[in-house]
Amino acid sequence: MTVENQNIPTDKARNAVISIAIKDKQALYMSYMPFVTNGGLFVPTKKDYDLGDEMFLLVKIMDEIEPVHISGKVIWISPPGALGNRPRGVGVQFMGDDARATVNLIESKLGASISLTRSTHTM
């Protein structure tokens, strides 16, 4: 997965715009957070965020031509050295009118693999 932070300059990393390219089903499975109300994605980042920080994601999902534009807020933080050797980053809960459409797109791309019980970046 490729992540590009395009943050608006502030004291803290708030109101960020983050571009993410999820290139394959494995990366999508590892990042998707189906247990979050309205869905969410894990975003690997070295920037510091606080719970509740809002951000805007531009998510290029596999073979989709256009990226999905979705607003969200930080609801999960994986610090450096997280248990299970999980990557540093944040879980972003989808917000807004496009949340359901984004979840539907992700789940259609994942197909039957959504029911697998393999570890992900968050669980």
Kindly describe this structure.
With 123 residues, this protein is an alpha+beta fold. The protein has one domain: predicted glycosyltransferase like domains (Thrombin, subunit H), CATH 2.40.10. 15% of the residues lie in helices and 35% in strands. The protein has 2 helices and 6 strands, in the order ββαββββα. It has helices at 25-31, 99-110; strands at 2-6, 16-22, 40-44, 54-61, 68-78, 89-95. It has a 6-stranded mixed beta sheet with strand order 1-2-4-5-6-3. The protein is globular, with a radius of gyration of 13 Å. The relative contact order is 0.23. GO terms for molecular function: cyclic-di-GMP binding. This is Type IV pilus assembly protein PilZ. InterPro entries: PilZ_domain. Residues 17-101 form the PilZ domain.
List the main descriptive attributes of the protein structure presented here.
123 residues; 15% helix; six-stranded mixed beta sheet; disordered N terminus; alpha+beta; Thrombin, subunit H; PilZ_domain; Type IV pilus assembly protein PilZ; cyclic-di-GMP binding
